[in-house]
Design goal:
By secondary structure, the chain is mostly beta strands. The chain has 1 helix and 18 strands. Strands 6, 9, 11, 12, 13, 15, 17 and 18 form an 8-stranded antiparallel beta sheet that branches. It has a 4-stranded antiparallel beta sheet with strand order 2-1-3-4, with no helix packed on it.
């Protein structure tokens, strides 16, 4: 399967494939599917979304301090671990069954795609959906998949789980107070992942739920209830 002229994925044995579009995707994309019986080309229209943008004025000089060599080494090591897990390309099609929200009881405390602009300088958008819930609230797998990372004590994410649902569609669960799965474990939809916490860089107990497809940041709520055509 080709996206805008670049081969990006191959269909599963049943013929299913998934593609994702980033927060700042262009308004159209050309998809070309090549099969033994021929090929099909379709131009997709990408509907624009509206994000929470905050303009912060008068602060200025929000520079970061210099990190120690030890801290820089830790950040580099954690970045490599996360990069390896995000690069997973499991030969699975769990994405075809649809997704559920990983928390039964929650309050949306931060929407996907929000961004702050300080003195005209845009900061990195928030690529997660923040779901506030009491510490210890169970977190469940929204769809089946294989665990590619299950780590406690990360600097920014605290307790972090990454799950590959097939073909590089990876979901992430940040700030967990407890992790109940292991790297390499195969999950079914609804299985217990861990519990809500406030570990890492978090100001209060919540689950930051993220989703990427091959480095494209996606709003995970768009996958809730979505299923492959019959």
């Amino acid at each position: 399967m080709f996206l805008d002229g670049q081969e990006v994925t191959r269909a599963s044995a049943s013929g299913a494939f998934v593609i994702g579009f980033d927060r700042d995707a262009l308004p159209d994309a050309m998809v070309r599917v090549v099969a033994p019986g021929g090929e099909s080309v379709q131009v997709l229209q990408i509907a624009p979304a509206h994000y929470d943008i905050q303009h912060i004025r008068g602060l200025g000089g929000r520079g970061r301090g210099t990190a120690s060599p030890e801290l820089e080494a830790r950040i580099a090591w954690e970045t490599r671990r996360k990069r390896e897990a995000l690069d997973s390309r499991a030969d699975r099609e769990d994405f075809t069954t649809g997704f559920m929200v990983p928390l039964t009881y929650r309050r949306v405390s931060g929407r996907f795609g929000g961004q702050r602009i300080y003195g005209g300088v845009p900061r990195r958008p928030h690529y997660g959906l923040d779901l506030a819930a009491p510490r210890g609230t169970p977190v469940h797998a929204p769809a089946g998949g294989v665990v590619t990372l299950a780590e406690n004590g990360l600097l920014y994410e605290g307790g972090l789980i990454l799950i590959d649902h097939g073909q590089g569609l990876v979901s992430a669960y940040l700030h967990l107070s407890r992790i109940d799965v292991l790297r390499g474990q195969v999950l079914r939809q609804g299985e217990l992942l861990g519990a809500v916490g406030a570990t890492g860089r978090a100001t209060g107990p919540h689950l930051c739920w993220r989703m990427t497809w091959r480095d494209r940041h996606m709003d995970p709520m768009l996958m809730v209830g979505a299923q492959a055509p019959a």
